[in-house]
Amino acid sequence: MKDVLSAIQPTGDMHFGNYFGAVKNWVELQKKYECVFGVVDYHAITMPINYQKLRNNTWELIFNLIAVGIKPENIFIQSLVPEHTELAWILSCFTSYGQLTRMTQFKDKSAKSKEETKDSFVSAGLFNYPVLQAADILIYRPKFVPVGKDQEQHLELTRNIAQRFNNSVSKEYFRLPEALFTETPKIRSTADPAKKMSKSAGEKHYISVFAEENRIRKQVRSAVTDTGKNTEGQMSMGVENLFELLKATGKLKEYQSLINDYNSGNLKYVELKDAVADALIEISNDFKEKKTEILSNKKDIKNQIKQSSWEIRKIAQETIKNVKELTGLINVKF
Ligand code: TRP
Question: Is 167 within 8 Å of 63 (Cβ atoms)?
């Protein structure tokens, strides 16, 4: 059993929205709990993607995670632990079809998939995605699952599945996992502060954690500050976002002094932007240095992750053995 499980889809690049909103919290959680973090490539194939890029994206994300402070021994690659899909099948038989049809992420993603591909094809994998997610979680029987609010419905479904399973086999086998909604900064796109920072909106909408200094500065310098929509006297979303970023970097003295300037009407946006850019660059340089080290050692790191996946897989195998026992499936050790 583990205390904490979370997972992330392999999309290669990592931006400051991912970092401040989720991954930084994972780094902290490692200090207090036994953690496992999955890079979930089985989930990535639920949407039409570039299959040639997936494997590279998976490794790239892993290098990035390690560079920002996730311990390699806590990382596994989902497809190296095939018990996830085995458990997903079993759990699908304890999942309410009706409840799956009400998953908002499925509705959003299927609409998006149709729009992007101009094709009405939506995979059954996308529909079953939340069952695989439930398997990802339950297979390690964790106490906590740190996720964003957008995953609340999936967590609720996971608990329902666990409950139905437990009731059906008359045993409190699965621990009901709790979502851990740590307050994390919600970073918005600097190009369009009405949107959250994300890769799907396009290149100018996210600042990569590993971007070149000049690019970071340029992106911050060109951040939208006045959206024109706000009523007099209210901080615009763009300015608020810059302050949020500055606070997230931990530069609290600068933050406070610039807030004071804002309140007294003396804030020059360029000063706020420079403070944000300096702080992001400082963090980024530190991570880039670690990443260079990692990249010079790629082979060893890959082996280490295969090994950690194997270690973590032992827990998954134990769970599958128990689940087969409880559900009357044949258990044979070949
Ligand atoms: N669905 C999650 C997301 O979109 C990713 C995910 C897959 C996940 N399996 C998980 C998150 C298990 C937490 C636990 O972000």
Answer: no
